[in-house]
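Translate sequence into C-alpha cells.
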Amino acid sequence: MSSFVQALGWTLLHFLWQGLLIGCATALAWAALRNARPEARYAVGCGALLACLAWPAAGLYLRLAGGDATGAMFSSPLLPAALLAPVDLPNLDLALRAVVGVWALCAAMLALRMALGMLWIERSSRNTAAMHAPWQARLSGLAQDAGVTRPVRLRVLGGIASPFTAGIWRPMVLVPAALISGMPPHLLDALLAHELAHIRRHDYLLNLLQNAIEALLFFHPAVWWISRGVRLEREHIADDFAARQLGEPRRLALALSELERLQFSTHHLAQAANGGDLMSRIKRLLRPAPQTLNWKAAVPLLALAGACLGIYGQAVAADSAPVLERNAIIDFGVCSKPHYPSASLQAKETGTVILSYDVDATGKVQGSSVIKSSGHPALDEAARSGMAKCTFKPALAAGKPVSASVRLQYVWSLD
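Result follows.
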C-alpha cells in the first residue's frame, strides 16, 4: 500500500485518543471558566478545535517525513513516541485501506453538503425578488449604529426557518417571510441586531472553518461536542452585543421567546438567531446568575481524565523501556521439537501458529500466549507448551541481558 494511505490511516486511528485528550482538557477548562465571560470560553473552544486539526496534521506530516522526524517531535515527556508509532500487527494493510476509504467517502459527502449550502446562499443573494426596501433601510440604520461599515444586504425568503447571516466580503442577512408579517417590528429589530453582531465579528468565516473541521474529523464525538459548545458561546457573545446595542436585554429575550413560540427549526447553513439552547439563552438574558459545578456531570469527565492518564502512563512506560540491541533468540541446539499430538496426526491436521514468549534476563520463559491460532487448539497448545521448555539467548540492551517479549512462528506439517 502507498505510504500516504498508511500514514493517513494511522493518523486517523491515533486521533481517537488525541481527540479524547483534547476533549478532556477542554471540559476541564470550561468547568474552570463556567462563570467567565463568553469570549473566554469561546476562545478556549476555538483553540481546542484548532488543536483537533493541528495535532493530526502534524502527525501526518511527520509520518510522511520519516521516523527520525517523528521521534524528534514525539519523544518528549509530553508526547511519548509510543503514542505515535504504528503498532506492529499482522495483516493491517487492508484494514487501513478500509479506514481511509470510509473516511474519505464520508468527508467528501459532508464537503459536498457544505458546497451545496454555499451555492444556495449565492443564488439567494442574486434573487432580486427577495428584496424588501423598508426593512433594508431599517437594517442599514441598525448596521450603522452597530459599527458595521460594510453594506449589509437583506433578503426575505419563504423557504427558510429563521434569520441567519451569510457572506464574507458582502454580508447578507436572510429573514423568513413569516417573521416580517408575524413578529412585531421592535422584536424583529432585536433579532437583526443579533445577526449584525455575527457580521461585525466575521462569524460566518469562522463558522465555515468550523464546518470544515467537522467534515474532516466527523468520526470523533469530542469534535462535535466541542463544536456545539463553540456555537453556543458564539450565540452568547452575539446576544450580549445585541443587548448592549438595544439597551434592554429583555427585548432580545422576548424576541427569542417569540421565535421559539413560532416553533422554527434550527438552520445549519450559518449561525442563526436561534442557534444554541433558546431557553438557556433567554434565562441568561433575563436572570444572569453564577453557574455551579454539576458534580454528577463531572463524573464522566473524571472517568475520561482517568482513561487519558492511563493511556499516557502506558505510553510513558513504553518509551522508558530499554532500547534492544538484540531481541531474545531461541537456542535450537538445546530445544527439542514439539510433539505432534496423536489425534491431530491421525486427523492429518496442519497449520501455522504464532506465539509470544516473555523471556527473562537468564533466558528462561516466564509466560507465553497464542497470538494467532493454527485453527486447531491441540496443535496450538502443543507448540506453546513444547517451545516454552526451550532455552533462549536473552535480549540485550546496552550490552546487558534484559527481559523482553519475542514472537515465534511454528509450522505443523505432515512432510
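Note: Residues 359 and 365 are 5 Å apart (CA to CA).
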